[in-house]
């Protein structure tokens, strides 16, 4: 028994594990905050596109030894311009444009990384490697996450009104265009941060799943944020902790935990869950059946008369 | 605390509501001129209908009044102020069309009404006791207090409209813009909304309603502005909302049929019956044509 306990607290005795857990939790929290807005607007796949598009920037930054955040930022702008350019000069639909541009950039990133295997590892970019994150990189992630969180805390209600009813938001003098620009800038920044913890392929989970789970549990936006952030923080912290035991693949563990919570909400949510919906449907059906029987009884009576 | 209090207190100190649209032209970035040289003026205690076909510039006029578009010529003044000043002082309250809103959004009825108070709050948007009271009062006025903790998408079309009206009440704008308020709602809600608009008018508000529902216009509007890419006519409903003007405004778009002579009367009555309709609610003119007209409304088919 005490052996097991000792085993369980082992991760806490390593500095790198502490760092991994806290940085992951911070990134999970801020991504979860953003997920509340992203999944409501039907923009979820944008998170995926962003996550993949910034890979060449990160790879390039590692090759020339620049801070990865700058490289990612540069690639993000390139992606946005690329999408705008293709959209303007062709009659392709938006999803095709996004798919085209982000896969191109992702391929470029993979190519760059494979040509310079000493300075950058494909696996780190694609799957993340928070357990081995250098202090300088961890610092960048923390700065991004804390600033983003502070800004969101400040503007969350204005963003809510903007995303709920943009015309009205404008009519009360909110600068909706600026607000949306800020939102996408934060999304890009947090995607960059999440790249470090779960990797390019799983970034989308962090910016979709917590919000989607919370959405099944509440009809109030403030609670949605609290629940989503709690889910994002806990799963990321616990995920990083558990990844010590399964040796690596932190992103996989975090996202699996989030999915488990989502499934729980999907089935057992008190109002919007599958089981609650079935129960409601059964009640309605029984009511109808009863009403039907009464109707038939009425007919019988009428016939008898 | 009663209904009149809610309105008069804010109005007492403020200047009377007015809209002055002065020679306004709006050209969009793609070069399309939606409205040319439009002018009209409205004062406090008025309900005015903005009438025109789709594409006649109704929504462009609304956008110019709310400051979403800047006129390429002319200017709009609200309560004597430039539009941006008026908007930042919460003078304009806007009730949107239902289609513009995301009904699956996780907000409750009371949250939506609280949005009306945002312009009055500080940067953190933390509601004060006064804000909460205004929300309670607004919900009470539209008879939606019982629904305050419902998610907004669970309501019927008419209830949704009431909630947005409550939001405009909570905002305490002296100018209220309603965008097609009667589409997709039941007759009971329509008359409840009209009653409320009358109360607001009597309290000195200026209400501008864009509508293509002609039948209800003479019912509750004191003024009309007839629009077709410019202002064709503007003035009191009794003198402006005439068959001739409407035919000019809607030329060829609406169904217009006339019953007269023996098709209508068995004797030689000179009165004729004119029905103008867009298949929603018909507008009926009954009387001697070219003489003095008495617009009468009918809910005929």
TrEMBL record, chain A:
<dbReference type="InterPro" id="IPR037294">
    <property type="entry name" value="ABC_BtuC-like"/>
</dbReference>
<feature type="transmembrane region" description="Helical">
    <location>
        <begin position="60"/>
        <end position="86"/>
    </location>
</feature>
<keyword id="KW-0813">Transport</keyword>
<feature type="transmembrane region" description="Helical">
    <location>
        <begin position="138"/>
        <end position="156"/>
    </location>
</feature>
<dbReference type="GO" id="GO:0071281">
    <property type="term" value="P:cellular response to iron ion"/>
</dbReference>
<keyword id="KW-1133">Transmembrane helix</keyword>
<feature type="transmembrane region" description="Helical">
    <location>
        <begin position="20"/>
        <end position="40"/>
    </location>
</feature>
<feature type="transmembrane region" description="Helical">
    <location>
        <begin position="200"/>
        <end position="217"/>
    </location>
</feature>
<feature type="transmembrane region" description="Helical">
    <location>
        <begin position="250"/>
        <end position="269"/>
    </location>
</feature>
<dbReference type="GO" id="GO:0055085">
    <property type="term" value="P:transmembrane transport"/>
</dbReference>
<protein>
    <recommendedName>
        <fullName>Iron ABC transporter permease</fullName>
    </recommendedName>
</protein>
<feature type="transmembrane region" description="Helical">
    <location>
        <begin position="98"/>
        <end position="118"/>
    </location>
</feature>
<dbReference type="GO" id="GO:0043190">
    <property type="term" value="C:ATP-binding cassette (ABC) transporter complex"/>
</dbReference>
<dbReference type="InterPro" id="IPR001626">
    <property type="entry name" value="ABC_TroCD"/>
</dbReference>
<dbReference type="Pfam" id="PF00950">
    <property type="entry name" value="ABC-3"/>
</dbReference>
<comment type="similarity">
    <text>Belongs to the ABC-3 integral membrane protein family.</text>
</comment>
<feature type="transmembrane region" description="Helical">
    <location>
        <begin position="224"/>
        <end position="244"/>
    </location>
</feature>
<keyword id="KW-0812">Transmembrane</keyword>
<keyword id="KW-0472">Membrane</keyword>
<dbReference type="GO" id="GO:0010043">
    <property type="term" value="P:response to zinc ion"/>
</dbReference>
From TrEMBL, chain B:
<comment type="similarity">
    <text>Belongs to the ABC transporter superfamily.</text>
</comment>
<dbReference type="InterPro" id="IPR017871">
    <property type="entry name" value="ABC_transporter-like_CS"/>
</dbReference>
<keyword id="KW-0862">Zinc</keyword>
<keyword id="KW-0813">Transport</keyword>
<keyword id="KW-0067">ATP-binding</keyword>
<dbReference type="Pfam" id="PF00005">
    <property type="entry name" value="ABC_tran"/>
</dbReference>
<dbReference type="GO" id="GO:0016887">
    <property type="term" value="F:ATP hydrolysis activity"/>
</dbReference>
<feature type="domain" description="ABC transporter">
    <location>
        <begin position="19"/>
        <end position="254"/>
    </location>
</feature>
<dbReference type="InterPro" id="IPR050153">
    <property type="entry name" value="Metal_Ion_Import_ABC"/>
</dbReference>
<dbReference type="InterPro" id="IPR027417">
    <property type="entry name" value="P-loop_NTPase"/>
</dbReference>
<dbReference type="GO" id="GO:0005524">
    <property type="term" value="F:ATP binding"/>
</dbReference>
<dbReference type="GO" id="GO:0006829">
    <property type="term" value="P:zinc ion transport"/>
</dbReference>
<keyword id="KW-0547">Nucleotide-binding</keyword>
<protein>
    <submittedName>
        <fullName>Iron ABC transporter permease</fullName>
    </submittedName>
</protein>
<keyword id="KW-0406">Ion transport</keyword>
<dbReference type="InterPro" id="IPR003593">
    <property type="entry name" value="AAA+_ATPase"/>
</dbReference>
<dbReference type="InterPro" id="IPR003439">
    <property type="entry name" value="ABC_transporter-like_ATP-bd"/>
</dbReference>
<keyword id="KW-0864">Zinc transport</keyword>
